[in-house]
Here is the input.
Amino acid sequence: MDFVHIRQRRYALSTGWFEPRRHQWLYFEKHQMRKLLERYERLLYLDGDILLTPACPNLFELVPAGKLGCVFEDGGPRGWERHDELSRAQRTAGALAKPPAGYFNAGMLVVDRAHHRLFDLHECPPVGGRWPEQTALNYHAHRLGLPVHPLPPRCNLLAEFTATWAHEAHRRAAWVIHYAGRVNRPLMAKDFPAIAAAWMAQK
Here is the structure.
């Protein structure tokens, strides 16, 4: 597989939710996938605060072609915030034709050319919210009727939805570990040497 590192900013967009901050403008850079889908048939998108473990299978093989592979994060004690996001988006941008299947985390996505419209900011503009690009992707994916393929949590393990996140062995047993939030960066730094060594042992 090719590895494409998104290094340059293309979309200088403010979120409109909090006071504009420099890092918030980076949210929409994942929309560079629209251009990449002209070159590649399928993409696996990963946020910069993610580690893949050697146990991770080929995620393209887990997601049928034409479907959007993702992990829903609208469960648990903070699930209400995700439902609130979609409700607010509908008040801003229009009601969806049918209730959404769920609210997915946009830090790990399996996409293909059938989803290129989703990353067109003219056709699918921001809708506001706590997580601006994530809520926009959720809203427009449902608005466009894109078929979604939910993946198990270990394909995008997040702290707030995992009761045993603090347990090192459990965390590292996931396929895709997502250290979202500054509070989890020290754990990422702690896990990286062990996971990197495990990868090197595979060679």
Notes: Helices lie at 33-36, 59-62, 79-93, 132-143, 168-172, 185-201. The CA atoms of residues 90 and 202 lie 47 Å apart. Residues 1-48+63-151 form a domain with the Spore Coat Polysaccharide Biosynthesis Protein SpsA; Chain A fold (CATH 3.90.550.10).
